Amino acid sequence: MKVGDVEPFWLNSHNVTYTGDRMPSSSLAEFELLVVLAALQLGPDEAYTVSIAAEIAERTGRSVRRANVYTTLRRLEAKGLVATFLGDPRPERGGKPRRLVTVEADGARAAREAAGAVHAMADGLGWLVG
Amino acid sequence: MRSPRWARRLLRRLEPSERAEDLIGDIEEAHRGRMERMGPARAAVATGIEALELAASLLWARVLEGLHEGRWTMGTSEHWVADLRYAGRALRRAPAFSLVVVTTLALAIGANTAIFSVVDAVLLNPLPFENADRLVSIQGTAPGSELEGEFGVPDELFVAYREQSDLIDDIGLYGVVQSTMRAGENVERLFMARVTPSFFSTLGVSAARGRIPTDADAGDVVVISHRLWSTWFGSDPDIIGTAHDIAGAQRTVVGVMGPDFLFPDERGSLWIPVTIDPSALTPGGFDWGVVARLAPGATPEALTSELSSVAATMPERLGGPRVYAEIMSRHQALVRPLEDELVGDIAGPLWMLLGTVGVVLLIACANVANLFIARSESRRQDLAVRHALGSGRSGLVRIQMSEALLLAAAGGALGTFVAGLGVPLLISIAPEGVPRLGAATLDFGALVFAGAVSLLAAIAFGLVPALGFSRPTLVSGVRDAGGSGGSTWARGRDALIVVQTASAFVLLVGAALLLQSFWHLSHVDPGYEIEDIFTFQIAPSGEDLNDGPSYARFHYAFMDRIAALPGVESVGVVNQLPLDEGAGDTFFQTEHTEAGEQEEPLLRVTMTGGDYFATMGIELLAGRVFDRIDGENGLTEAIVGKALADFLWPGEEPLGQRIRPRGAPMWWTVIGVVEDVFLQDFRQSEPERLLYLPMVGPSPRLYAVASPAYVVKSPNAASLAGEIRELAREADPNSPMYRVFTMEGLAARSMAELSFTMLTLGIAAGLALVLGAVGLFGVLSYAVSQRTREIGVRMALGARADQVRLMVMAQGARVVVIGLTMGMVAALALTRLLRGLLFDVPPGHAPTFVAMSLFLLGVAVLASYLPARRASGVDPMRSLRTE
To answer: Tell me, what's the pLDDT at B478?
Structure first.
């Protein structure tokens, strides 16, 4: 047993907790959808936290917190919807690399479904969505 | 320039190393963009904030993941019960620890809850009116004219506002007077409001019983307050339609207001309708209060500009003297939200007090956190054993949090009790006239507040040590007897002491500045004495009392009876008393103004008789005072204050000069010059220019002094009320005594806002000081106990006891000096908030800062002396043997 792990249930049985069903990994919250779409727009050579935040801000006109983009990317990566890898060190980043984002097939499918759902719901509401 | 180093270090700590590099790259890139846009200083701040934001999101994400994966279970309720029981037993075994923690928390939570109750009632509870945000008060100002400061609205402007404004939905007038009401056995002087019927519709209130007045009512009806109804009439359901002698006339009760309605005066007991006749306006009585309801969408600013052009047209329409024209040409309307107008003066001090007790709570939490860290350090082995036996991190956190929660609950309960004692105390020392203060109680909201504060406190002082001492790396070392990881905690505890010292210093400096202001104010010479002077008013009534001479006869006879009381040295009357009513103002003419050499001045004037000047200790500088007036003939004599004499007759002999109210056919001759007095309060930069006239002038109507203030000099001034009340009853059974004070009481009242803030800030500073000292003592004692071995080695190697003592005390002093430095910076910024209360001492008063630094250092030396002595008493052999 690794230190800090969940202890064996026979020692501390009331500590075993039912964590419930996980959300189906294919459904995307709104901001997640924006992040995936931005990564697709930018492409695997240019998509990373800073550029994704800027892209969303520019296209939607809302202010975007990089902290949100960063944690959202981590979550998407944990769900297997995007993959990341480190680029080359860059002088304008104090010699640090960028973590570039590639959208996985599952991610692209999830984005298509989420965007499709929005389109389906907005159908016939042209006066609203223009 | 690179992004702030602490930001990078923070993120490196929070993310695994393979993640941290690119994250810091992001921060760096954003920072360089900012440097170009906003320069290095602002970029550093913005980047720091972004790093904090990132840290918060990362921590939050970690908590969510932990919960999701079941690593951070809160445990079952059964488990909590078991842990709480265990914690209860453990705390019983540490009574000193528990007592110190609970007392500390109770004082801090109690102080916060008490102040919160007051803030809640006065500032947070909006006015009990519909759409109260649209209610505004209107006043006026005329900078550069004869009329100084802010003043009320005259009849003619009220009518003009009502007729001309598009931004007002409804507008009402009010004025507060003090007059006599008689009903059955009760006779009393009461605060009464005179209001237009539109006053009620503007506020959107209706009567709880009966009705409110309408425009059709003459002044012979009255609406009474719920309090008057219940105290005077025993909540008589048949009150409507009964008539009583109110303010000199029979008036019929048409309505009873609800218990919440006390506007415009907390002491208000009834409302008498007045009507303003637009066709019979006499200009210039600037004393009405005005409340207006804005039209939807209108703002106070828009209304200000709309109304400001109205006044200038008045002199043309209504005539009036030149000074009136000048006032109106410079007149500006002052429109403020009604809520600001009501709570404006007290809002600043109250928020400051809430902030102050918040700081005390912070200090208390820091102290308790310190104690908890020490406790956790000492139970490290116990925790490690639990871990080894299979307790997970959440279990270890829960054990420690159970103690925190128990102690916070006890502290909260005791604190609520403290607050229960504190609220009435606060109300009793608060300045008079704080709106809705009477509504401050320990209500449900306050209890919720106390509960929430206790819970937050438990989290603040319990969670950090609990999380720290459940870290696997810390607790797994069962055999590790202190040492590793200790330095981080030592630094954390030093930081807590720094914060405590800084906060205590700010509070101490604030309290010291207020104390000096109080001292300076108490030593101002207002021109009169305040010791041993009893004062009251009486408004005699009767068929034979109808003109100046008849009132004067009553007053002289009554003064004679008072003078005959044992111990009474002298008695006088004055129409309006300094510090209570000030004085009225009227336009006057002198021979200079008649000759066109001077403008007709607007002068403060009051009437006096008896031994007024001697009783008040106002020195006669030249000439003589008024003789006693006999018979029907008054005096055409006047007495002037020194400042007035210099103003009217610069370089001339004032005695023998002549003066008269504008339009009077005869002159009053100046017979005396007296010392100047402060009429309003002791903060005035210079005294008013005051004119004294005799109680009876050249005609029976000039002047009829109906209800003057009596002043009585006697060594037992504070206990005269009973005897004089008896005399008053004999002289006129229908005329109650009112405005009963000692001059000392009036002086205290004029400083109430200052003394209120000073007292509460002083108490907070005292608490902060004690808590800070206890905290320092605890930290140093702990440090000494941790360093026993090291000290033993030093002493074995030849260190002397005094060197060891000095070493320990220097350790304390170092932390305190850092705290003091930070405290000074904070105090320089924060004492500015006190500016309005300070008198004769600047916010950044250097001697105060130095003195308080030395004082705090002294306390720190004391607090570190005991641990230092213990350190120097270490026996090298024993300390080495314990290892």
So the answer is: 42
pLDDT along chain B (883 residues), means of 10: 83 81 89 86 86 85 70 66 86 85 90 88 76 87 78 85 88 86 80 90 90 85 90 89 87 89 80 84 77 89 84 77 80 86 76 85 85 78 78 79 90 93 84 73 85 87 78 52 52 79 87 88 87 89 83 91 92 89 80 86 89 94 89 84 93 92 88 92 84 87 83 89 87 81 86 80 81 76 74 84 84 87 91 83 91 89 82 74 59
The span from the CA of A36 to the CA of A72, in Å, is: 10
Domains located in chain A, CATH noted: 24-123 (1.10.10.10)
Query: Which residues does B contribute to its contact with A (CB < 8 Å)?
Result: 2-3, 21-26, 28-30, 32, 50, 53-54, 56-58, 60-61, 68-71, 73, 75-76, 78-79, 389-395, 472-473, 476
In the block, residue with structure tokens 């904030």: B49
Residues in chain A: 130
Q: How far is B64 from chain A (nearest CA, A)?
A: 11
Question: Is the distance from CB of B285 to CB of B114 less than 8 angstroms?
Answer: no
Phi, psi of B294 (to 5 degrees): -70, 145
Q: Do A97 and B21 touch (CB under 8 A)?
A: yes
Report CA-CA distances (Å) from B725 to B455, B580, B719, B733, B854. 54, 20, 11, 10, 53
- Would the pTM count as exceeding 0.80? no
Neighbours of A104 (CB within 10 A): 16
Sign of the alpha-carbon torsion through B592, B595, B599, B605: positive
Complex ipTM value: 0.76
Q: What CA–CA distance (Å, rounded) separates B646 from B669?
A: 16
Task: Count A/B contacts: CB-CB distance under 8 Å.
Answer: 91
Q: A2, A31, A66, A74: which to substitute to probe chain B, counting the most B Cβ within 10 Å?
A: A66
Instruction: Select from B128, B241, B232 the least CA-distant residue to B190.
Output: B232
Alpha-carbon torsion (A105, A108, A113, A116), positive or negative: negative
Could you give the dihedral angle defined by the CA atoms of residues B74, A17, B390 and B79, in that order, rounded to the nearest 10 degrees? 50
Cα distance between residue B624 and residue B610, in whole Å? 13
Query: Distance between terminal CA atoms of chain B?
Result: 50
CA distance B249 to B800: 91
A-chain residues near B473 (CB < 8 A): 3
Chain A residues lying within 8 Å of B37, measured CB to CB: none
Please answer whether residues B109 and B453 qualify as being in contact, where contact means their C-beta atoms are separated by less than 8 angstroms: yes
Instruction: Using the structure block, give the residue that is written with the tokens 């213990």.
Output: B870
Question: Does A70 contact B54 at a Cβ distance shorter than 8 Å?
Answer: yes
The domain ranges of chain B are 5-69, 82-129+346-480, 143-330, 485-524+747-883, 540-734
Distance, in Å, from the CA atom of B240 to the CA atom of B244, rounded to the nearest integer, reads 11
Q: What is the DSSP string of B416-455?
A: HHHHHHHHHHHHHHSPTT-TTGGG----HHHHHHHHHHHH
| B25: chain A residues, CB-CB within 8 Å | 90, 93-94, 96-98
Three-state SS for B335?
strand
